[in-house]
Amino acid sequence: MTIGERIALLRDQKNWSQKELAEYLDVSRNTVGKYEREEMLPPLDVASKIAVVFNITLDYLAGLTEEIPSRDKDAIPWESAVLLTKIEKLPKSERNIIESVVDVFTKAQLNSTK
To answer: Which pTM was predicted?
Structure first.
């Protein structure tokens, strides 16, 4: 199985559109299509993001192994990874506001469970 076939298969298994995957990878939907048709290969930084989003190894993506690793219970869920990617792109001042809000909510949650 080729890299493009693996990307398409993994994306289909999650019922994600090319646009949804493209959003996380910070590429266009057309670029995801080119990866899947193997008109171009993803650069290493994008391949690493693909491995994270599907919780696979780069070895599996590259076809060096046929074994799909089991789901890591500590892996970040797809939705959280997309959200974190969006937050990382914000200006520092806006990231600081988000961090403050999250701190308030987590402290309130911790206090309510005591």
So the answer is: 0.66
Same domain for 20 and 62: yes
Same domain for 47 and 9, yes or no, is yes
Identify whether the C-beta of residue 69 lies closer than 8 Å to the C-beta of residue 56.
Answer: yes
Residues 52 and 20 in one domain: yes
Integer angstrom CA distances of residue 15 from 8, 11, 59, 80 = 10, 6, 23, 17
Cβ partners under 8 Å of residue 59, min gap 6: 65
Domain range for 42 is 1-75
Q: Distance between CA atoms of 78 and 50, rounded to whole angstroms? A: 11
**Rounded Cα gap, residues 34 and 90, in angstroms:** 28
pLDDT in tens, 25-71: 989 999 999 999 999 999 999 998 898 888 888 889 998 888 766 55
Q: Residue 24's closest CA among 75, 73, 89?
A: 89
Domain count for the chain, please give it.
2
